[in-house]
Every structure is written in structure tokens, then in C-alpha cells.
Design a protein that fits this description.
Elements: H1 2-27, H2 31-54, H3 57-65, H4 70-94, H5 100-110, H6 118-148, H7 151-174, H8 176-199, H9 204-225
Length: 226
């Protein structure tokens, strides 16, 4: 019964992440609201409150971070470099459609993002967003899924929920067809990061990889959109 309750809670957290992004970007059309709802409420408050409720907060926190080690760090940077190149190439291909860059800029400006804040947004997205997502999905959700279901299923389920809210963002920016394709690619990357978390238990390999992936999204926005 305890396992079932824990599993249902984690599934609820997964859907809650998508709802927080939907609420912030679609309902409120605000990056600030989105970051508060997703990063503060979901990525920070949920793991802290859940760990406190279980009485394993310190243990869970240490497990999520782990210790940096050379082999995992190298692997993370190598995979991240591949993602960086792929993200820039994919963004460039999407922007070949006439007027798409202007459309994306108008949408992002409707979220209260402008040239004044674009560099701070970029730094936040690359460093903090990648860290908080890795601590939440691979450091918190995946580890608890593994205690209730088999590891392969846990990785797949975690990757599904991780990719789900990307469907909201990518569909708003690029349309449904491209949104679905981008979400599928994010799901596959999530599978690899889930595997990496098992191979290299600390947060650093997936975080460094994630940072480079997000950098591959930020660079085209800075160069070609804004």
C-alpha cells in the first residue's frame, strides 16, 4: 500500500510539473509566473516537503547531489556537446521558415521577455534551470520511482513526465507538428540521462550535459531571434 501511494504521488508530481508550465505560459503568459510555479513550487518545494514528510530529507539531498567524478564528467560533457550541436542545427532548420523568428520573438515578448532581460534569462536558463530540472527529475523523481517499479520502467516514466511539459512550450513556439517531434526528442534525451544517472550516480554528469543542451537553445535565440 505504501508503494502504491508513493507511486501515485510521483505521478501526480509529474502531471503537476506540466500544469505549472501550462498555467504560467498559456494562462498567465508570464515567464516569471512560470519560473515561480515550476522551479520554486515543483522543483524545490515538492522534493523538500516530500523528503521532510518521509524523514529522509538529508539522505535524499545527498543522494541527489552525489560526488563529482572524472569519468562521468567527461561523458556528460561529450554527450552535452552532441546535444549542443544538435540543438543549434535543429533551431536553425526551424528558423528557415519565413517569419518564424519574428513569431517566436513576439511570443516571447508576450511572456515579458525583451532585449533588456534576455541575457539574464539566458544565464538563468542554462545554469539554474538545468540544475533544478536534474535535481528534480533524475535526483528526486527517478530515485523514488525506482523504489516502487523496475529501473527501466522508472527511467521511461520519468522521461515521459520530463518531456510532457516540453510539449506545451514547443507547441506554443513552433506549432503542434514540430512540438510533438521536439517532445519525442526530449523524451529520448531523458532516457539517456536516466541511464546516465544509474551509471554515474551524482548530479554532475547529467547537469553538465543538460547545461550544454540548454546553451544550444539559448545561442540561436540570442543570434537569430533577438
Amino acid at each position: 500500500m505504501m508503494y502504491k501511494r508513493s507511486l501515485l504521488l510521483l505521478i501526480g508530481y509529474g502531471f503537476g510539473a506540466t500544469l505549472s508550465v501550462f498555467y504560467g505560459l498559456v494562462e498567465k503568459q508570464s515567464l516569471f509566473v512560470t519560473f515561480v510555479c515550476f522551479h520554486v513550487v515543483v522543483c524545490l518545494c515538492i522534493p523538500l516537503l516530500h523528503g521532510w514528510w518521509e524523514g529522509t530529507l538529508r539522505q535524499s539531498w545527498l543522494l541527489a547531489w552525489g560526488k563529482i567524478e572524472r569519468r562521468g564528467t567527461i561523458f556528460g560533457f561529450m554527450f552535452g556537446t552532441l546535444l549542443f550541436a544538435g540543438a543549434i542545427t535543429g533551431f536553425w532548420l526551424l528558423l528557415q521558415t519565413d517569419g518564424r523568428a519574428d513569431t517566436i520573438r513576439r511570443i516571447m515578448e508576450s511572456w515579458d521577455l525583451n532585449r533588456r532581460w534576455i541575457w539574464w534569462f539566458s544565464l538563468y536558463l542554462v545554469v539554474l534551470n538545468s540544475l533544478l530540472e536534474e535535481l528534480f527529475w533524475r535526483g528526486f523523481v527517478l530515485q523514488r520511482f525506482k523504489s516502487a517499479i523496475s529501473r527501466p520502467v522508472a527511467v521511461i516514466l520519468t522521461s515521459f513526465f520530463y518531456s510532457l511539459y516540453h510539449l506545451v512550450v514547443s507547441t506554443v513556439l513552433f506549432g503542434l507538428k514540430w512540438g510533438v517531434l521536439i517532445t519525442l526528442l526530449v523524451f529520448l534525451v531523458g532516457i539517456v540521462w536516466g541511464w546516465m544517472k544509474g551509471k554515474f550516480p551524482s548530479v554532475y554528469p547529467t547537469w553538465f550535459s543538460h547545461m550544454l543542451a540548454d546553451l544550444g537553445l539559448v545561442v540561436p535565440i540570442l543570434w537569430w531571434v533577438f
